[in-house]
Design goal:
Organism: Drosophila virilis
Order of helices and strands: HHEEEEEEEEEEHHEEHEHHHEEE
Strand content: 15-25%
Structural class: alpha+beta
Family: Belongs to the tRNA methyltransferase O family.
CATH superfamily of the largest domain: YaeB-like
CATH class of the largest domain: Mainly Beta
Pfam family, one: TrmO_N
CATH architecture of the largest domain: Beta Barrel
Strand order of the largest sheet: 3-4-9-8-5-10
Largest sheet: 6 strands, antiparallel, barrel
Protein name: TsaA-like domain-containing protein
Number of helices: 8
Distance between the termini: 60 Å
Keywords: Coiled coil, S-adenosyl-L-methionine
Length: 386
């Protein structure tokens, strides 16, 4: 028995050593990312005098987004196929880095963000927002300015577990033209600043356009005849939905029902997803999505005593962290390469450290600490009143 006990202890020790090695590798990856962030902050740093000069020059020459065809195609006018867009504003969000940014706006529905319009587009930018308060939701079209990777024809959405599919059948941010689309809920408008809920953008994202959400035009109509789809607005689509398809092609269940013109009385929301009531009919033939999109999986989020105490001390809203983690913000690479390992991300002025357990389908928050060394220009992760 004594010999068997020693063997068991050695086996446990070996497993712990292997786990520690994997955690060290994961922390090395995090360290490299932190170093890149620090280098980028140092490169972008300007003293107050330099920043004022740059801003003054920026008013004369607004920064533009250039979308260019990499091929040598020439258009009918004999010019190269290039399109210039000047951002109309910038988004200030609670995410200074891409890490852990929600893949859909409904995941960040409790996170408030701001849009600050540029005064270089209109003389009085606040005039362009008159009438927008009559709408509850709006579409945001913006530039994925932090995606520098070369776009590929096929990408690997997280829900496919590494399997690749055509980029245009997904909502992946890695696209030939890096344009993002989010459906968000308007909170209030103050001058040339819009406050909204539904954050799935990194801080500093350039905004290209704003459009009001109109369900009569934006939601597909129900089928009225076999084999045909009504071209008239669906009168049952009276409700507004603040969810959208995830960037990696993962539409939320709420949008699937909302796009079909279902009212709130036909769906029931709980912590695990959206379940149809017994009286709800099946999805209409006018709306069709692949099975891998509909299939959903939520992780169970736990907090240890230390993290719970830090939440109270720092006055961080717990549900904001839960919303982010239960949707598993890790990329396919991190999930398959490192598995159940330590994961950290920044949320406004705090850094959250957690540990995933893929076998149990849980994630435990072990630490929530204030960012002392790096100051970020982000908003408080404040929950909505509802």
């Amino acid at each position: 028995m004594h010999e068997d006990d020693l063997k068991n202890q050695l086996t446990i020790a070996r497993n712990e050593i292997n786990n520690l090695r994997q955690q060290v590798r994961n922390l090395q990856h995090v360290q490299r990312k932190d170093i890149e962030t620090i280098n980028r902050l140092l490169q972008d740093f300007r003293c107050e005098g330099c920043a004022s000069n740059i801003n003054a020059k920026g008013k004369d020459k607004p920064e533009s987004l250039i979308l260019q065809n990499d091929s040598n195609d020439i258009n009918v006018n004999g010019r190269e196929d290039v399109t210039n867009f000047k951002p109309i504003g910038i988004i200030r969000s609670a995410f200074p880095e891409k890490r852990a940014v929600p893949r859909q706006s409904s995941v960040g529905s409790r996170l408030r963000s701001l849009i600050q319009l540029n005064d270089g587009v209109f003389t009085n930018p606040e005039h362009s927002l008159e009438g927008l308060t009559d709408f509850s939701h709006m579409w945001l079209i913006y530039h994925f300015h932090r995606n520098n990777a070369h776009p590929k024809a096929k990408v690997a959405p997280p829900r496919l577990g590494g399997e690749r599919i055509g980029v245009f059948s997904t909502r992946s941010p890695h696209r030939p033209c890096p344009i993002g689309l989010s459906l968000v809920e308007i909170e209030k408008i103050d001058g040339a600043t819009i406050s909204f809920f539904g954050t799935d953008m990194v801080d500093g994202t350039p905004v290209l356009d704003i459009k009001p959400y109109i369900p009569y035009y934006d939601a597909p109509a129900l089928s009225v005849d076999p084999g045909r789809t009504s071209a008239m607005p669906n009168e049952n689509s009276a409700d507004f939905y603040d969810s959208r398809q995830e960037p990696d092609g993962e539409e939320s269940d709420l949008e699937l029902y909302g796009a079909a013109g279902y009212t709130a009385s036909t769906i029931h929301a709980d912590g695990l997803g959206i379940q149809p009531t017994p009286s709800a009919p099946p999805l209409p033939s006018a709306v069709r999505v692949p099975n891998w999109v509909v299939a959903g999986h939520r992780l169970t989020v736990c907090f240890n005593e230390h993290a719970e105490a830090q939440l109270l001390e720092l006055q961080v809203h717990k549900q904001c962290i839960v919303d982010i983690l239960e949707a598993d913000p890790r990329s396919v690479y991190l999930r398959t390469k490192y598995g159940s390992q330590i994961f950290t991300f920044q949320l406004s002025e705090v850094t959250v450290t957690c540990k995933f357990d893929d076998k149990a389908g849980t994630v435990t928050v072990v630490q929530v600490r204030r960012n002392e060394n790096i100051q970020v220009a982000a908003l408080e992760a404040e929950p909505r009143n509802s």
